[in-house]
Each structure stands twice: as C-alpha cells, then as structure tokens.
Amino acid sequence: MAPLIRPLPVDRIRPDNTAVLVIDMERDFVDAGAVQETPGGRALVPVINRLIGWARHHAAPVIFTHEMHRADHSDYGIELEFDPVHCIEGTPGCELTDGLDVQPHDWRIRNKRRYDSFVGTDLDLLLRSRRIENLVCCGVTTHCCVLSTVYSARHLDYRAIVPADAVAAVSPAHQEAALLCMSDVFAYITDVASVVALWPSPGGAGVWRCRLRARRCGSVPWPPRR
After folding, report:
1. Can you give the three-state secondary structure of 152-210, one letter per residue?
2. How far apart are the C-alpha atoms of 117 and 225, rounded to whole Å?
3. Is 153 within 8 Å of 23 (Cβ atoms)?
4. Predicted model pTM
5. pLDDT tens for residues 75-107?
6. Distances from the Cα of 219 to the Cαs of 11, 58, 120, 211, in angstroms?
7. Which residues pair with 189 in a beta bridge?
C-alpha cells in the first residue's frame, strides 16, 4: 500500500527553522559486505548529498548521527537478541561511509546507543537551542533508525519530512511498511525534488516552479522572502 502523501506546509518550512538529519550512514550499515549492509544504501550517497548541498546553500544546518556501542557490549541491552554486533566504538564500522559531503562545521550526534536518534543523546537540546522546528530525515534504515527517530520527533513536536528516495530498508516490504506507517500521523512523505524546490535559488526560475507546486498541492501562497 502506498503511503499517504500530504502537501508540504511550505509556509512553515524556512531555512532558519529547518535542519537536514542524516541518520546512521555508517560503514557497518552501508559498505559492501558490512555486517548489516542495507541494500541500496550506497546509492543513497549522491541523493543525500543533494539534500546536504541544498541545506548548505541556504545556511540550514546538517546533522549526522552515529550509532556507537562500547566494546564490552554493555550498552546494547536486548538489542543483540535481534541484531548482530555492529558499530563498536573505535572501529571503522562507526565511520560515515565514503562519498558523503561531510564538513567540519556539520553537527555530529555520536554515542547513539539506540535506533532512535533522540534517546540518550543531546539532539533535542541542540535542535531547541537553534529553534529548529522541521527535520528533513534521510539515511538508513527506513524501518528501524529512521522510523523510530521520526516517531520521537513527532512526539516532541518537530515536523518530520521524509523523502522516500533518500531512505533505504532491508527489503521493499520493509520500506513500504515503514513509509506507510510514518505517513499516517508522523511525517510528511515526499521526495528529494520536492524538498529542494522549497527554497529556490534567488532570482531563478525555480521560484515559479515552487509556487506552482505549492498551488497544485493546495497550500497557502509562497511566503515573502526573508
């Protein structure tokens, strides 16, 4: 079943209140032959880089999360009943995969011990300190770390925006189920093209394309440029 597609609330999504959250694009989840390789994970790199470039062009923050676990496995809890050992601190598996456009000024959420990027981290504090209201969520996996992060974001009153072509799951069935569940009341499901059209380049033809897109979706007129 296809997810519910709602018009994006374009008047509420601005560069000063939006961040791109890149979830767990680490070697242990993305690299070929990795312990928890995500099918299609490496193909996300250029797609996510497009979102990153869009955010940077408009001075919106980019945040990378790193799932990490202690070498003695003491912080896994019951996770190892479901998953193999992965993302051990100090190992290459915790590093972001090659090709991602990562810059020194990007924010990092390290020592993430659970699927949910909010549990046990300072992500919420960081977002509230910067008055962030919207999270464009991308990365892996759609049905675990992305979904659980989106659920918490929604409960904390962040507006979650999930481009379906910027997330990947372990199977098409998992992808479809996760997108469907998130689309109910937890997130706006969209695509990368629609996201990057939100804030066109100054003076470009994208202004008119974006306004047309907004009108077709039945949303309010494009807000004045800040």
Report:
1. HHHHCCCEEEEEHHHEECCCHHHHHHHHHHHHHHCCEEECHHHHHCCCCCCCCCHHHHH
2. 32
3. no
4. 0.88
5. 999 999 999 999 999 999 999 999 999 999 999
6. 8, 22, 37, 10
7. 162
